[in-house]
Design brief:
Chain A is 72% helix and 0% strand. Chain A is an all-alpha fold and 295 residues long. Chain A has one domain (69-291): MetI-like fold. The radius of gyration of chain A is 24 Å and the shape is globular. In chain B, helix 4 (72-103) packs across helix 10 (198-214). The model of chain B has no long low-confidence stretch (mean pLDDT 90). Classes of the chains: A mainly alpha (295), B mainly alpha (282). Chains A and B meet through helix 1, helix 3, helix 4, helix 5 and helix 7 of A and helix 1, helix 4, helix 5, helix 6 and helix 7 of B.
């Protein structure tokens, strides 16, 4: 048997373009920005970068406003992901049976998560508008007065969570449904024979069997929520004040509105370290779940 | 009890679909009706003017006013070009790498795969700062090829993981049999494996395409007039103007969102797999 190309060459040819591109667009810029994070460089300035040691990092860590953005991000992530988790599971339990038009209904309900987050955020501005927004109109049916959803520091974060929930609950529905449909019917039939209560069945059959999948869903959502930019930018641009300013928004303002390139590289590295920590936990959990055969 | 839960479900579905309905109905309303209180849900003067305004803006005042093309059609074309080419290449590279990772023992394979996956976990905003500096230096800023390269990489980790998953499901024996019949490894890949992954390739392409089509952060920072895609164009119109005409925004948004909804419908079978990076086969 003649071999024109050895397996080794083939593997190299197949993998190398991918690796090279990733190195060029991801690794190389990251090394560059590590260097810049120790300088006072600004892309709009004409000066060459000056080495400033760890000044950028020291300034950032002692800046109390920076932690405000972390707090906002954490608040938003915890609220949004928790609500989506329970709502998604609940709706999935309702949807987990055969009925007319289930397929089309499911596709319609799952559509929001495929849409562009920036466009979703922008359009919800209109829905949430204090004066002519349709949400306030619906609330007026229940004798609830006008709420300045996006104009008030207290409600802006809630608005962001509402829109995020509209957009991403479908993700949790999808994951929960996958888990539910994989549970063997015989288990429920056996429980039926034993006259187990609905709660007992949920607690001792459903939950243990779908929990690995739910965990995967939670992890995906947490990672995504942590780095979210588009939706908040479209909806509030981080405002009013800094009420909904997430870390991505803070980074954007520092890098592309104040053009503190060096300092923003340092900020990016701080975020990067947190992300690496988080994704390590995430990958470990994922591996453990898959090892248990949940994947 | 069943009736009760069905009603709850219907209410949830109505709430869910309402924002999309509202976008559609707003796009056909006149400026007055957009801001009317109480809002008009079904009975309003149907107009297509918003759609016309998306493509043609009015320039000049009074009797000198005339219609000139807006920046939207250009941005739509830009989005199509950048999405099309980047998707095509991301899927080709993903299929090749996915095949290699699926079939061969590669030293440090799991580390490599982890590295590829981890590139997707980076927040766009973190990576875009140095890329901006680099693109300015290399004159890739505001170019089609710069954006296409970027979106290839942006989708590459997804494409590799998805395609590896699809190829993993095809038994190795198929190629082994083919190679016994005298096929080379490449021929076996090309003639035996590839045809079996068409559905997977199509699904992967749709997901990559939607991601590139929707992408905002890179487009906002790395494009200007000539290569600006739709998301920063719509966002610019809303965020930079006071007294936004929501009818026009709704019309532009719908033109932009409808392809996504149609494609989502086609890949509904693979939705779970797609949104979880192939980790859940579904």
């Amino acid at each position: 048997m003649k071999k024109i190309m050895s397996d080794r060459t083939l593997v190299l040819l197949f993998i190398l373009p991918t690796i090279l591109l990733l190195v060029f667009i991801v690794v190389y810029p990251l090394i560059w920005s590590l260097f810049l994070s120790f300088t006072d460089y600004s892309v709009v300035g004409t000066e060459k970068p000056h080495f400033v040691g760890i000044r950028n990092f020291a300034e950032l860590i002692s800046d109390k406003y920076i932690w405000l953005h972390f707090r906002n991000t954490a608040k938003y992530t915890v609220m949004a992901v928790a609500i989506q988790f329970f709502l998604g599971l609940g709706i999935a339990l309702l949807l987990n049976r055969e009925f007319m038009g289930r397929g089309i209904l499911l596709t319609l309900m799952l559509a929001p998560m495929m849409l562009s987050p920036i466009v979703v955020g922008l359009f919800w501005r209109y829905i949430l508008d204090a004066n002519w927004g349709v949400l306030n109109y619906f609330l007026s049916w229940f004798k609830i007065g006008k709420i300045a959803w996006l104009g008030d520091e207290k409600t802006a974060m809630i608005s962001l969570v509402i829109v995020d929930t509209w957009m991403w609950t479908p993700f949790m529905i999808l994951i929960s449904l996958a888990g539910l449909s994989a549970i063997p019917k015989e288990l429920y039939e056996a429980a039926e024979v034993d006259r187990a209560s609905a709660w007992f069945r949920f607690r001792h059959i459903t939950l243990p069997l779908i929990s690995p999948l739910l965990l995967i869903g939670l992890l995906f959502r947490t990672m995504d929520a942590f780095k979210m930019f588009d939706l908040a930018w479209g909806l509030t641009q981080g405002g009013p004040g800094t009420a909904t300013s997430t870390i991505s928004i803070a980074l954007y303002r520092m890098a592309f509105q104040n053009f503190e390139t060096g300092k923003s590289c340092a900020f990016a590295y701080i975020i990067l370290i947190i992300i690496i920590g988080m994704s390590n936990i995430y990958i470990n959990l994922l591996n453990r779940i898959q090892a248990r055969g949940g994947g | 009890m069943k009736v009760f839960w069905s009603i709850i479900l219907i209410v949830i579905v109505v709430i869910y679909i309402f924002p999309l309905f509202w976008m559609i109905s707003s796009s056909f309303k006149t400026r007055v009706e957009i801001f009317s209180m109480p809002p008009k849900f079904f009975k309003f003067d149907f107009t297509l003017k918003n759609y016309r305004r998306v493509f043609y803006k009015v320039s000049g005042w009074g009797k000198f006013a005339r219609e000139v093309p807006s920046e939207f059609p250009r941005s739509l074309l830009n989005s199509a070009i950048i999405t099309g080419f980047s998707t095509l290449l991301a899927v080709i590279l993903g299929t090749l790498s996915g095949y290699a990772f699926s079939r061969f023992e590669i030293p440090g394979k799991s580390d490599l795969l982890f590295f590829i996956l981890s590139t997707r976990m980076l927040p766009s905003m973190v990576i875009v700062v140095p890329i901006f500096v680099m693109y300015k230096k290399l004159h890739l800023f505001n170019t089609y090829h710069g954006m296409i390269i970027l979106y290839i990489v942006f989708n590459l980790s997804f494409s590799v993981w998805m395609m590896k998953g699809f190829i993993d499901e095809i038994p190795k024996e198929y190629e082994e049999a083919a190679m016994c019949d005298g096929y080379t490894r490449f021929q076996a890949f090309w003639k035996i494996i590839l045809p079996q992954t068409y559905a997977g390739i199509a699904a992967t392409a749709v997901f990559c395409g939607i991601t590139a089509w929707n992408e905002y952060v890179f487009a906002l920072i790395l494009t200007s007039e000539e290569t600006k895609t739709v998301p920063p164009t719509i966002a610019g119109n809303v965020l930079k103007t006071t007294g936004v005409n929501w009818g026009e925004v709704a019309a532009a948004s719908l033109i932009f969102l409808v392809p996504v909804i149609i494609f989502t419908f086609f890949v509904r079978k693979y939705l779970l797999r797609g949104v979880t990076f192939g980790t859940i086969k579904g």
